[in-house]
Amino acid sequence: MRLVMMGTGLFAEPTLEALLASPHSVVGLVTQPDRAAGAERGSTRQTGRGLKTIAQEHGVPVLQPENINSPEGVAALQALQPDLLVVAAYGQILSRDVLAVPPHGGINVHASLLPKYRGAAPIAWAIYHGETRTGVTIIKMSVSLDAGDILAQEAIDIGPDETAGDVEARLAPLGARLALQVIEQIKNGTVQGRKQDPSQATRAPKLKKEHGLIDWSRAAGQVSNQVRAMQPWPTAYTFLHRRGHPPLRVILYRMGEVAVASSTADHLAPGGVLLPADKSLWVATGANEAVEILELQPAGKRRMSAQEFLRGHKLQAGDRFGPETP
What we know:
By secondary structure, the chain is α/β, with parallel strands linked by helices. It folds into two domains: 2-200, Formyl transferase, N-terminal domain (Rossmann fold, 3-Layer(aba) Sandwich), CATH 3.40.50.170; 209-322, Formyl transferase, C-terminal domain (Methionyl-tRNA Fmet Formyltransferase, Chain A, domain 2). The chain has helices at 13-21, 51-57, 71-80, 96-99, 122-128, 164-188, 220-229, 262-265, 306-312; strands spanning 2-7, 25-30, 62-63, 84-88, 106-110, 133-140, 150-157, 236-241, 248-259, 273-274, 281-284, 289-298, 304-305, 320-322. The strands form two sheets. Strands 3-2-1-4-5-6-7 form a seven-stranded mixed beta sheet, with helices on both faces. Helix 1 (13-21) packs parallel to helix 6 and helix 5 runs antiparallel to helix 7 (220-229). It is elongated.
């Protein structure tokens, strides 16, 4: 089959490499335009070798339209004469005209157990909401977002300390394997799909920087999940308020969940620092719980352990974490 790969970022790389190693012909790669480093900050996608680099090494034509749905984008796709589009984290919703170019339409490699977590950041939102399992779903593409028939699906467990980046790295090769399986079924005319249950659908919208701001009134487990979910981007953050000092922005990388007796924390508002804070850094959360911050990065400094941070920042009663403006 003549295949056009459409994708961006590390999640899509194993799928492209698997297609290139298969008996099928990869006749083109469609990926996002090259961006300046600063313009990439709004993307949750991790980068590896780069899809463009991989394609060029194999002599595969590369298209980078600003809008693949434009008449020019559709015409460029038509010129490749694909039998099937294989899409993984491309970053643009495909129009009916694009999906009509190949006779077999398109399949999408999606990093969730659809119909849950439809959208741009399924792994992050699964971790944020405390899911302990996720997976990859291959769907027949439709004009509605991630709503097509399920062609293949496989689940994995989410480790209690795994970040979104960790989980993405494990799901990417799984997605490549399932995509090849489905392509063979399409070629042989044996592919079978099942409808998604729309009543079970949940959304996973694109992440924004403000999604990383910690709300300390949430339960300890929820705060811990947010820290894991926001890595590698936009990262979880908060502000340390100390008497006599301006608010200090702090990125949170790693923490442990610690339940504490109400007698220890009921006098502290969420975000309050539990004392003594000389060797460990515990912060009160909602539900009379607390989390222990293990690794963090104060503004203008390197990433460090809580112990290193506390050696340079002596905390006292009344110090707390929260938004920049109370």
